[in-house]
Write a structure and sequence with these properties.
A: 236 residues, alpha/beta, 8 helices, B: 278 residues, mainly alpha, MetI-like fold, two-stranded antiparallel sheet
């Protein structure tokens, strides 16, 4: 099956103050693939993900140059161009962080939060989409009787799957996962891996991971980030 | 260091208990004569030998509640700007300004009120002196705001960065993040700030004394003058020690202490509720 490019990165540099994290990075990401990004700690793997949804803009002293183009509706658009609506970008490029970060609200409230932000919150429709998102991450059966409970009372694995459901409720075209299984036990981690493989059918996934076993099991391609440079762009 | 803190805590607690005991002992004649509770519901009418505190209690609650109504949105907005909505340099200037406001003597606020606010309110009302509940509450709201702003912004700052970032990553604007994530996570701090503000408003003497008009009557509008319990203490303290007027001071003190104690208990109760929820 021939896949189309989803993300084009050209001459991308990223710095905190005077410290260069990414140095003139060039990369291409194909749609419906899983790309793993590995490398030593502190080399900017998480920062790389944060560039792709412009979350880096919330970091004081951070600075980006170069171009990141993402294909929206068949057309590549520079995500840093002023015509690019930030809310649309972040709904299209979902992100799940290393440690679960449920919002201080109910289980259902967490998953419905992006819908609330978008103002697409007809109650029945919201309930259906919440159920669908929770089912996709295999969490629905575990929480269907606790939807109004505080999400912070769930276990770590459940919280992480909840965060994935929250990221999936808008059906993003790209999903950025920052070591999504690092804080989970083996069973929960395996569940996340299965989910990643399932999501590949509808999403382009970029996954930061330190687990080479996980990378071997899930990734179509492995990139290594070291000394600000991204190596190993070949397909596996 | 631990014994030092222990001794400090014991001394603080003893002083507090001594103040209550002092007021109860000096106010004993009021209890013996069964006057204390009737004072709480009677008007102040010395010519008929009635020395009730009802108008002052209503004045205190009215002015301090209204000050909270004005001060709460002002404080909430300023704290939101300080804790993330304003650009960093502006937030730093705002924080320093608010911190500086806590050190301004109350009498300075009073003077500003007398010369700027009172004429404005007088023109607005079209009658009276302008020394009224509204003037007093507006100025008190400015006085209590720094207490609330600093409490609120400290609470907002405690919301984890990862929580804010999660909302941002989902497409929330800074204002949406504040309204739907930071505010709900800060309920306890908001209530604590409100109660501290209420306590500060009820305990203030000079603003009420200088610009609320000090009339001993139950106010019937925002433009009516009123007297607060603290202002009443300041005005009556010069009277003869054995006079019935002077005895009302102990009742005033006990009522104020009661309000403060209720505020503290409310903070504790809220703390317990939020602890059990989290």
């Amino acid at each position: 099956m021939s896949r189309m490019e989803k993300i084009r990165i050209d001459d991308l540099s990223f710095a905190y103050g005077k410290r260069t994290i990414l140095n003139r990075v060039e990369a291409r990401f194909m749609e419906n693939t899983i790309t793993a990004i590995t490398g030593p700690s502190g080399q900017g793997k998480s920062s790389f993900l944060m560039v792709l949804n412009r979350l880096w803009e919330t970091i004081p002293g951070a600075h980006v140059t170069g171009r990141v183009n993402i294909r929206f509706d068949g057309e590549f658009r520079d995500i840093h161009h002023r015509s690019m609506p930030l809310t649309r970008l972040r709904r299209t490029v979902g992100m799940v962080f290393q440690t679960p970060n449920p919002l201080p609200m109910s289980v259902a409230g967490n998953v419905a939060f992006p819908l609330k932000l978008a103002g697409t919150g007809k109650r029945k429709n919201t309930e259906e989409r919440v159920e669908k998102a929770l089912s996709r991450v295999h969490l629905w059966d575990e929480v269907k009787d606790r939807l109004k409970d505080d999400a912070r009372k769930l276990s770590g694995g459940q919280q992480q799957r909840l965060c994935m459901a929250r990221a999936l409720v808008f059906e993003p075209e790209i999903l950025l996962l920052d070591e999504p299984a690092s804080s989970l036990d083996a069973k929960a981690a395996a569940g996340i891996e299965d989910l990643m493989l399932e999501l590949k059918n509808t999403c382009t996934l970029i996954v930061v991971s330190h687990s080479m076993d996980q990378v071997r099991r899930t990734a179509d391609r492995v990139l290594t980030l070291e000394s600000g440079e991204l190596h190993g762009c070949e397909s596996s | 260091m631990k014994p030092f803190f222990f001794i400090s805590a014991v001394i603080s607690a003893c002083v507090s208990v001594c103040i209550v005991l002092f007021m109860i002992i000096l106010g004993l004649p009021l209890f013996r004569e069964g006057l204390f509770f009737s004072m709480l519901t009677s008007p102040w009418n010395p010519s008929n030998g009635v020395f009730g505190l009802y108008p002052m209690i209503i004045g205190t609650l009215g002015i301090s509640s209204l000050a909270l109504v004005f001060g709460f949105p002002l404080s909430l907005g300023t704290a939101a700007l300080i804790s993330g909505l304003a650009p960093k340099p502006l937030a730093a200037v705002l924080r320093k300004t608010v911190q500086a406001m806590t050190g301004i003597p109350t009498v300075v606020y009073g003077f500003i009120g007398v010369f700027l606010l009172v004429p404005l309110i007088r023109n607005l009302a079209g009658e009276g002196s302008g020394m009224c509940i509204l003037s007093s509450a507006l100025l008190l709201s400015v006085l209590i705001s720094p207490t609330m702003i600093l409490t609120f912004s400290d609470t907002f700052d405690q919301v984890p960065v990862k929580t804010r970032m999660a909302a941002t990553a989902l497409g929330a604007t800074p204002v949406q993040t504040f309204l739907w994530v930071v505010l709900p996570a800060s309920k306890k701090g908001l209530v604590t700030g409100l109660i501290l503000g209420m306590g500060r408003a009820m305990g203030d003497t000079l603003i009420a004394l200088m610009i609320s008009g000090n009339a001993i009557a139950v106010p019937d509008s925002l433009f009516s003058p009123a007297r607060t319990l603290t202002a009443h203490i300041a005005l009556v303290i010069a009277s003869d020690f054995d006079s019935p007027e002077f005895k009302t001071l102990f009742a005033c003190g006990l009522v104020l202490y009661g309000f403060t104690a209720l505020s503290t208990l409310a903070v504790r109760a809220i703390d317990t509720v939020f602890r059990s929820e989290s």
